[in-house]
Amino acid sequence: MRQKLAWLALAAIVLAALPFPLSEPHTVELATVGAYFIAILGVDLLGRHAGEVSLGHGGFMAVGAYTTATLTADHGVRDLWTIPAAAAVAGGVGLLAGLPGLRVSGLSFALASFGIAVAAPTTLRRFDHLTGGSRGIALFGKSTQTGHGLGVLGLTNGQWLYALTWTVGVACFLVLWAILASSFGRSLHAVRDSELAAAAAGVNRPAVKLAAFGISAALAGIAGSLLAIDVAYVSPHTFPIQLSLYLLVGSVAGLYGSIWGAVLGALLVQYLSRLVGLVPHVDTSRAGPATFFFGATLVALMLALPLVLRSADAIARRGHARPH
Amino acid sequence: MTGFLEHLVSGLASGGIYGLLALAIVLVRRTTGVINFAQGEMATLAAFGCWTLVDHGWAFWPAFGATIALSFAGGAALQVVVLRPVERGPLAGILVLTVGLLLSLNGLTAWIGGGAPKRFDGPFSASLVTVGGAAFSKRDLGVVVASLAVAALVGLLLTRTKLGLGLRAASASPAEARLAGVRVGAMRAAGWGLAAALGAVAGVLAAPSLGLEPNMLQTALLYALAAAVLGGLDSPAGALVGGLLLGVLLDLVGGCVHWVGGELRPATALAVLLAVLLVRPAGPLGVRRA
Q1: Nearest residue on chain B to A95, judged by CA atoms?
Q2: CB distance from A248 to chain B under 8 Å?
Q3: Which of B34, B137, B231, B271 is surrounded by the most beta carbons within 10 Å?
């Protein structure tokens, strides 16, 4: 436990110090990594703790991002205060998508969330009086709507975005950790492991599942809100179907859970396309190669994962058997 | 009235394509218990293959035949190489694996074929025929007839042939089928192959009107999933009827209700999907299997 705390403290120091040696654009990039981190926490919550697959977290991110964009551009709200609103709206859409999951479990949330990911871009285009259609929305009319413009701690814009995103990210992680350590977390695991046994033990399965869908989508909403703030612009192209699926890749690449896994997954979502550029004879100016490698990563992980988990299990068991 | 007829035919044409894709999804689900999210991308890749052959000077029909044969082999190979190792694992994992296939194939198509839409004329001309004042495109009529014919062929294959019997036996009760001498593994591969071949037909039929590009069938996959859910996810006939119904519904609502237009069609399909899952998960068109 002490060792674990030491690692987390070290990570916090690195996280806080990271932007100082970096250039402004790189700092903004790392801020968007923070947004993906939060979204992947949401995917993890479903994948690891609720036993459900979400193919639509990009769609929930879009909901959060447009909530923030509308509030800042049309109503002059400050960046910070739009985040709770984004969480609430996206969480509400998540509850809606989760409703069928109360009757039939397993596939239905995957189907419904995939539908949201597919429908989000065109639906955004339809309501162009609100969303600006394909042109999108530029977020901040006045510089005093951002922390940088207000001169918080004298940070540069990149540093402010980085500090904001990762502070919210760490807060989300801590809240999620507290939720999972509570009786709700135990109920969630019980429902995942055996719905029948959970019901027999008096767990309210529909309520627990629905809450998980809502919290998970709310996390994606926060992520979308922060992404919108980080790049100060949203359009339907920001949220293609592929984004939802990349987030799933990120979640699985982090072995479906643990804080390190989510960080790794978020880095992957942001940087994989550039890593692919290092492979000789690959032209990354086109979308194809990056998408292909995302998919290939996922297929390889899913094929290798059972082996990895089995050997990890064996190592852990050997560790326990050894007398201390 | 003529406007209604025109929408009906163009809706049936799109619906036939959704129905074929839905049929492929149901076949995979029946034979291997999985929803294959890569079904649409497999079809797009097949359409690209067919276009490439035609582009290299092949006549359409031989190219189409070769595409179907290659798709069958490719689908069966995917099942054997990629799906079989995880077959006994949790369903969520297999679902995620098919999402990986979706991304890989989408990326591969864009990588090889390029992102720009290709012109692909297909077997039917786009000219109009006028019947009693209503103008129908020959292509739409051709697609309706072709998809119904292909679906009927699949129906005959499933109910009247030894292969169909084997497929149904292997999906209904694998253990008993194995005792009766059915090669269950081969049947599962054949199920994927058949689904891939069906998808190839859908892709080639869809390409001329949708414009051949890597993301061509992503929205259609949602429609096909909604159609399959309408049919209860387990019924081939239900999937086809669900596809046709959804095609007509989306075309009528999109064309006649100005508020919906083209852009809210995916949202309409999503609403249908959610409503069916909520109200009657077995599918309004589904039959309860004994």
Answers
A1: B274
A2: yes
A3: B231
